[in-house]
Amino acid sequence: MGAASRSPPGDWGRRVSVAATATGGEPDLASRLDSLDLPALRGEYVRQGSFVYVDKFLSPEITARLIDAVAEISGSVNRNYLPGHKQGGSVSRHAIDARTSVIAELYRSAALRRWLDQLTGEHLQLSPPDDPHAYALYFYTRAGDHIGWHYDTSYYAGRRYTLLLGLIDDSSCRLDYELHTREKGATVVSGSLKIPPGGLVLFNGDALRHRVSPAREGETRISLTFEYVTDPRMHLWWRLISNMKDAFAYFGFRQVFHRFLGRGE
Asked: What is the pLDDT tens value at each position of the chain, 265 positions in all?
């Protein structure tokens, strides 16, 4: 656990870079968001207990730019293994920022944040600069890579929302989920889906129980997550707990405590 993979598995890095640069074009996120039926998505989001899936959320041009960024970042993947719970690779916002600005620009997009506010009915704020989960990449590239059932628990004073974007999926992995698990008297609804490149899943982290099923030999699944919060305050004790969890289970000590240990790669 904690060893960084310095070369992409197989030749996926070369292949996705070629595919991405071939697309070209300047993305227009605001125009893309305007084309979506926001009232219908809002209704679905509310009915499903703060959960919504959009299969064609990002344009091919925006998706291609993100996939190209993945190829640049692949040398910073931190492999982790927690018996009985998770196995895979992760890259924190700190390591991402050392390699590319594309992901951070999308995360901070004013148009995206306005759209999210309207969809959720909340004022979503950026995670603090020291939160390695603010935006992160997750690599399922070896047999058995997975994450078990869990919630994206908020250690913040407010709620934590996860925006999950599909980037590369040449795998049998599925996002399995359960809705309404924490609503008194509600019937739990189970679901399962594959998120295509450019697809989106948005949910309240404390409300959705979910997992990613194991990858098989030779498969690749790479996803990007954004984290937004309703109140960015966090007690110092909870920040320490959150950072230690992230260091052991996701990004390694160097990426999480990069300010003290040097560069976050």
From this structure: 344 433 344 454 444 443 433 333 334 899 999 999 999 999 999 999 999 999 999 999 999 999 999 999 988 999 988 888 899 999 999 999 999 999 999 999 999 999 999 999 999 999 999 899 999 999 999 999 999 999 999 999 999 999 999 999 999 999 999 999 999 999 999 999 999 999 999 999 999 999 999 999 999 999 999 999 999 998 888 777 777 776 666 666 566 666 544 554 5
Q: Is residue 150 part of a domain?
A: yes
Q: What is the C-alpha to C-alpha distance for residues 207 and 231, in angstroms, rounded to an integer?
A: 17
Of 47, 33, 88, whose CA–CA distance to 200 is shortest? 33
- Quick check: is 7 in a domain? no
CATH number for 182: 2.60.120.620
Give the domain range for residue 204.
Answer: 31-261
Check if the beta carbon of residue 114 is closer than 8 Å to that of residue 108. no
Specify the pTM: 0.84
* Phi, psi angle pair for 30, to nearest 5°: -60, -40
Phi, psi of 87 (to 5 degrees): -155, 135
In a domain, 84, yes or no: yes
Half-sphere exposure of 197 (CA within 13 A, CB side): 20
- Overall domain count for the chain: 1
Amino acid in position 93:
R
Helices (H), the chain: 12-23, 29-34, 38-47, 60-73, 93-99, 102-107, 110-120, 236-246, 252-256, 258-261
